[in-house]
Amino acid sequence: MFQYQFLSMSTTVNISIQHELFANDLMPVYKLFQLVEDKCSRFREDSELMRLNQKVGEEVKISEELFAILEQALHFYEKTHGIFNPGILSEIIRSGYAQSIEHIKGQNLSGMEKLPSQVSVMKPFDLNKSNQSVTPHTKLDLGGIAKGWVIDQAADVLEKVGYGFINVGGDIRIFGELPRPLNIGIEDPFDPSKIISSIQVVSGAIATSTTMKRRWLVNGENKHHLIDTRTGEPSLSCIVSSTVTAKTAIEADIWAKVNLLEGKDANNHKEVQTVLINKNGQVWKGGKLSGNV
Amino acid sequence: MKGAILMDKKQAISWGVSFGSIALVAGMVSYLGLSKEYLPNTAKQKNTIQQTPNNFYSERGFHQDHDQDQSFDNSDDSQFNGDFFDNGQQSQQFDNSQQFSHGQHGNFDTTTGGT
């Protein structure tokens, strides 16, 4: 296998493919990630998303790519009954996650004003397909779903070249027909240098959500990046790591997050295969097979 | 005398031919003996081909661990119970996979753990 790496979205994009790639094979993939970062990053004031966030309540024409991502976001918002909600940027910032994670991870952000929690119950935006436009009703964050979307797009490009897999910070998507199942180690959320479980997959995608990596303190109080949309606060779920398999990276990312947030109710989503790890380090595997051996 | 010389000549030729034949045969045996090591071993080749899929991800440190517990809970209706979430007690229903300590990716093709 040949491996290629580059940095994007504050993480490393790893591509493993069965034959050597040339520049004209790899460049379209690199450009896809650049494109999505330029359009969807909330840490760039000039990104299309942040310009959209300046126009809450107004109908705004947007690019084809952003429209496609928002379509997916709305679909999963409705399917998860709001557990997945892209309209929680204000809550994320209020929890202290106002800068890219490398600036705040492990830090104690002191002096921040403690604001009351807000629960977002409104639909985050409306789409007008004929106009390719969106009317945001609140400020939006597309972090996880944009990553899933671009991984799926990249897999479609790479599939034309060969078979292998792409791993972006632990979100994995297989492309092409593998000669054997991929053997994937699931990191111990309490010690990522160790593997606590494993999963074998022959096609589709795998994603893990965890509350143990993106953590910081606000006035000495522990915070992390996964907001429970029912409370407006970082989730208090007893599940600290959720690994899910699905057909696409977007689905895997969404269900990994939702399973973690739902905790003991996570079993309801039987169309995905799940590995959950709770705060005591216990591992549970279950759910329905989806594209796996 | 002339007859004796002729006989010697014939004998010499006969010995020469015999010696040459022996040398030729010895050379061929020697050659065949050396070549045999380099002849393709079709049985070995088949084994290599069979192993290829398992070695396919072995470049750059990824390995498949045949000793690893690859048991996978395929039950469709596994249920969470209160013990798992509330009091942390061990339950026979749940998979308490042994930890695998490893270097980079250990015996796995890749890892997942969130970011």
Tell me what you see in this structure.
The complex is a heterodimer of chains A (293) and B (115). Chain A has 7 helices and 18 strands. Chain A is α+β, with helices and mostly antiparallel strands and 293 residues long. Chain A has an 8-stranded antiparallel sheet with strand order 1-2-7-8-11-16-17-18. In chain A, strands 3-6-5 form a 3-stranded antiparallel sheet, with helices on one face. In chain A, helix 1 (23-40) runs antiparallel to helix 6. Chain A is globular, with a radius of gyration of 19 Å. The two termini of chain A are 22 Å apart. Chain B has helices spanning 2-36, 42-55, 82-86, and strands at residues 100-101, 110-112. By secondary structure, chain B is mainly alpha-helical. Chain B is built from 3 helices and 2 strands, in the order H-H-H-E-E. Chain B is rod-shaped and about 120 Å long. Chains A and B meet through strand 2, strand 9, strand 10, strand 11 and strand 18 of A and helix 2, helix 3, strand 1 and strand 2 of B.
What structural keywords apply?
heterodimer; A: 293 residues; alpha+beta; 8-stranded antiparallel sheet; 3-stranded antiparallel sheet; 7 helices; 18 strands; 28% helix; globular; disordered C terminus; B: 115 residues; mainly alpha; 3 helices; 2 strands
